[in-house]
Design goal:
18 helices, single chain, nine-stranded mixed beta sheet
C-alpha cells in the first residue's frame, strides 16, 4: 500500500478523533447542541465506538432528548457494559421516560461497577508512579476524581427513584450513602430532610435542611422546608421554585391521586356553598390556581364565562382540554390580580391558599377585580385563632378564621358565610377545612 493510500485510510479515523475531542470541549463548556453534532459526525465516520456513543447519549441527556439519548446509551452499554458514565446517564434517561424500575436497575449497576473501577484506577496510578510514569498516573487520578462524585450522584439518583416508588426507608438509606461519599451534596441533604419530615422525625429533618442550605442547595426552597418542621421563619408564600415544578411534574397524575387517593371534594363543596347564598347567575368567574380545571365544570352552569390562572403550564394545558374556560393565564395569582384589566362578579380559589401564607396581597387583588356585590369564595386549612397563618410539616399553610375576618374587613368585604367542611383526606383521615364566602362592598 502506498503512503498516499495509507494516509487516505487513516484520514477518516483522524477526522473522527478530532470531532470527538471537539465534542468533549463543547460538552465541558455547556454547548450541548454543538457537542451532540460533533459526536454524531464522529460516529458517522467511525461507527460503533462505545466512547462516542456514550458521549452522544450524555449530550442528548443534557438536551432533554431522552429517547434519542437512550438509543445511543443502550448501544454504548452493550459494547462496554462497565462504562459507568453511560450506565448512569442511561438511568437518568430511563427515569425521565417513566421507566422507573429499569432506571433503578441501571443505577444499581453503576453502584456495583464504580467502586471497583475507582479502586483499579487508584492501584494503577500507584504502579505508574512507581515506574516513573507520572503524567499517565495523573490521568488516572483525574479519572478517579471525575468518577468519585458520580458515585455519590448514583446513590442520589437511586434514592430519587426509590422515593418515587414510595420505598422510603430504602430511599433514605440511599441518600445517606450519597452523603457518606460526598457530605457536601446539598441536594441529598434536602431530599433526606424531606423523607425525615414525612416520617415525622422533625428535629432530624431540620438538621438536614440546615445542612442543605450550608452546602449550596436552593436557600429559599430549603428555608421553606426548614420552617415547615420548626414552625419558625415561615415565608409569606411557598417559593415558585417549589410550586411550579411540583405541579408541572404532578399534572398527569394529579386528578387520579386527588380524587381517588385523597377523596378530594373542596372544588364541589366550594361551588355548592354558593347555592347557600341568594340564587343568581354570574357574568364572569375567575378560578384562582385553577390547576387542571376541576372547578370549571361545576361553576360553568352558573357563570356566563369562566377564566383561570395558574403557575403550572402543564396543569393549564389539562384545564384547556376541558373546553369550559374562556381565558387561561400562566401567572402567579397575586400578580395577575394586580395586572389584569378584566373584572368579575365571582372569584374562586379551591385548595389554593394552602400554598400562600400572607393573604394580604391576594385579598387586595380579589377586591380590585370584583364588581361591587361580587363574591369571593375560597377554602383554607384551619389554624388556631392565636395565629394568623402557619406553615405545617405537610408544606401547606393553614389560616385562622380571625385572620380571614380581619382581612375581609380591611379590604371592604362583608362576610356572608363561613362553613366547616373536610377538604380531602390525609393518611385516610379527613383534613378539616374552612370555606369562606365574602361579598365586595
Amino acid at each position: 500500500m502506498s503512503d498516499d493510500s495509507r494516509h487516505e485510510a487513516t484520514d477518516p479515523f483522524e477526522r473522527a478523533k478530532a470531532l470527538f475531542f471537539a465534542g468533549i470541549g463543547h460538552f465541558e463548556a455547556g454547548r450541548f447542541d454543538a457537542a451532540e453534532q460533533a459526536f454524531a459526525e464522529s460516529l458517522a465516520l467511525v461507527p460503533g465506538r462505545a466512547s462516542t456513543l456514550a458521549n452522544l447519549g450524555a449530550a442528548r441527556t443534557r438536551l432533554g432528548r431522552w429517547r434519542d439519548a437512550l438509543d445511543a446509551l443502550d448501544q454504548a452499554v452493550a459494547l462496554e457494559p462497565g462504562d459507568v458514565d453511560a450506565e448512569s446517564h442511561r438511568g437518568i434517561a430511563l427515569a425521565a421516560l417513566g421507566r422507573h424500575a429499569d432506571a433503578l436497575a441501571s443505577h444499581a449497576r453503576v453502584l456495583a461497577i464504580d467502586p471497583a473501577r475507582i479502586a483499579n484506577r487508584l492501584r494503577r496510578a500507584q504502579a505508574l508512579v512507581a515506574l516513573g510514569r507520572h503524567a499517565a498516573a495523573l490521568d488516572d487520578l483525574d479519572e478517579v476524581l471525575r468518577r468519585q462524585p458520580q458515585h455519590a450522584d448514583a446513590h442520589f439518583q437511586r434514592g430519587g427513584l426509590l422515593q418515587f416508588l414510595e420505598r422510603h426507608d430504602e430511599a433514605l438509606a440511599a441518600y445517606e450513602q450519597a452523603l457518606a461519599c460526598d457530605p457536601t451534596l446539598g441536594a441529598a441533604w434536602s431530599q433526606r430532610g424531606s423523607i425525615l419530615r414525612d416520617m415525622q422525625r422533625l428535629d432530624e429533618a431540620a438538621v438536614s435542611f440546615e445542612q442543605a442550605i450550608a452546602n449550596g442547595a436552593d436557600p429559599a426552597l430549603n428555608r421553606y422546608f426548614l420552617a415547615s418542621v420548626t414552625g419558625r421563619g415561615a415565608p409569606a408564600t411557598a417559593p415558585p421554585a417549589y410550586v411550579e415544578p411540583f405541579f408541572d411534574e404532578y399534572a398527569d397524575a394529579f386528578e387520579s391521586h386527588l380524587l381517588d387517593g385523597l377523596h378530594y371534594e373542596a372544588h364541589t363543596t366550594l361551588v355548592r356553598g354558593l347555592h347557600g347564598l341568594e340564587a343568581r347567575r354570574y357574568r364572569a368567574a375567575l378560578d384562582l390556581g385553577c390547576g387542571t380545571g376541576l372547578c370549571g365544570p361545576p361553576v360553568a352552569p352558573i357563570a356566563d364565562a369562566v377564566d383561570g390562572v395558574d403557575l403550572s403550564r402543564n396543569m393549564l394545558e389539562k384545564a384547556r382540554r376541558r373546553g369550559v374556560y374562556r381565558h387561561l393565564v400562566h401567572a402567579e395569582i397575586a400578580e395577575h390580580l394586580q395586572r389584569t384589566d378584566l373584572r368579575y362578579d365571582l372569584v374562586l380559589a379551591a385548595d389554593v391558599f394552602i400554598y400562600i401564607g400572607d393573604l394580604e396581597a391576594v385579598f387586595g387583588g380579589m377586591r380590585r377585580v370584583l364588581d361591587r356585590g361580587g363574591i369571593a369564595c375560597f377554602s383554607v386549612e384551619v389554624a388556631d385563632d392565636d395565629r394568623t397563618f402557619q406553615l405545617l410539616p405537610s408544606l401547606r399553610y393553614a389560616h385562622a378564621e380571625r385572620y380571614l375576618r380581619e382581612l375581609a374587613a380591611r379590604h371592604a368585604f362583608a362576610a356572608r358565610q363561613f362553613l366547616r367542611r373536610p377538604l380531602r383526606e390525609d393518611q385516610r383521615r379527613p383534613v378539616p377545612g374552612l370555606f369562606v364566602y365574602l361579598e365586595a362592598t
